[in-house]
Structures are given as structure tokens and as C-alpha cells.
Amino acid sequence: MVKYSRDPSKPTKSSEAMGQNLRVHFKNTRETSFAIRKLPLVKAKRYLKVVIAHKQAIPFRRFCRGVG
């Protein structure tokens, strides 16, 4: 496991995640996580469902010059 540098101020309202050997693209994962950051869980799920349905796009902010 990873040791985090500090404990969250509200442990009941925060989460931590980690993955290893996942077949995902770093750039897509990073932009998706930044898009749903600080959203309530219900809004984040709704937003991701709309994105999957191709009705809204996730904004690429850092890696916007040639995503591939």
C-alpha cells in the first residue's frame, strides 16, 4: 500500500484509490479524474453517464495538443 502524506480533514467524506497494471491511458484517466474532482458522488455518476452516452465531452486541459 501507499502511505499518503497527510490524513484527510473529513475522513467520512473522502476516498483514496490506487491501481496497478491497469490497461488504461494515462492522459484520458487524468483528465477524467480532474473533470469529476470535487463533485458530489451523485453528480459525478450522472456526469459520467452523460459522457458515456456521447452527449457531453470531458474537457482536455493539459493534454489538448494531440491526445494520442
Automatic annotation (TrEMBL):
Region (Disordered): 1-20
GO CC, alphabetical: cytosolic large ribosomal subunit
Superkingdom assignment: Eukaryota
Entry-linked Gene3D superfamilies: Ribosomal protein L22/L17
Family matches, as InterPro entries: Ribosomal_uL22_euk/arc, Ribosomal_uL22_sf
Transmembrane residue ranges: none
Biased composition range(s): Basic and acidic residues: 1-10
GO aspect biological process, one term: cytoplasmic translation
Alphabetized SUPFAM superfamilies for the sequence: Ribosomal protein L22 (SSF54843)
UniProt keyword list: Ribonucleoprotein, Ribosomal protein
GO molecular function, one term: structural constituent of ribosome
PANTHER family documented for this protein: 60S RIBOSOMAL PROTEIN L17
Record-given protein name: 60S ribosomal protein L17
Organism this protein belongs to: Iris pallida (Sweet iris)
